[in-house]
């Protein structure tokens, strides 16, 4: 499995050597963004307990609709990000921006 290594020269300059495959670079970034999306859903209060309450009918229709819209917007942003990431080269993968809705 490849990795990114920081190399330092005596003159004070440095550079990263990226030995990841394109698949590793893509998967590393997808994992990072999936974790971010999960965090955003949890921070907004739409965690597993909220989802269970929505399924049980405990929440109002408005609360359910707001949560579904929030999650749908994040999911759409994730799919947009994933499409742009998978079209990128290994060297460009880390620079693809996730646009939080």
Kindly describe this structure.
There is one protein chain. This protein has helices spanning 22-43, 48-56, 61-86, 90-93, and strands at residues 4-8, 14-18. By secondary structure, the protein is mainly α. It has a two-stranded antiparallel sheet with strand order 1-2. The radius of gyration is 19 Å and the shape is elongated. The protein has four helices and two strands; from the N terminus they run ββαααα. The protein has one domain.
Enumerate the spans where pLDDT stays under 50 for 5 or more consecutive residues.
none
- Widest sheet: strand ordering: 1-2
Run of helices and strands = EEHHHH
Helix content: 55-70%
Comma- or semicolon-separated keywords:
mainly alpha, two-stranded antiparallel ribbon, 4 helices
Strand-helix topology:
Elements: E1 4-8, E2 14-18, H1 22-43, H2 48-56, H3 61-86, H4 90-93
Antiparallel strand pairs: 1-2
Helix pairs in contact: 1-3
């Amino acid at each position: 499995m490849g990795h990114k290594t920081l190399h330092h020269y005596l003159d004070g300059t440095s550079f990263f050597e990226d030995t990841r495959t394109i698949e590793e670079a893509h998967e590393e970034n997808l994992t990072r963004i999936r974790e971010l999306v999960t965090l955003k859903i949890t921070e907004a209060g739409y965690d597993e307990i909220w989802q269970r309450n929505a399924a049980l009918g405990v929440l109002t229709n408005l609360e359910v609709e707001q949560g579904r819209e929030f999650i749908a917007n994040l999911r759409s942003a994730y799919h947009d990000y994933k499409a742009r990431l998978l079209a990128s080269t290994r060297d460009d993968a880390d620079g693809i921006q996730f646009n939080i809705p």
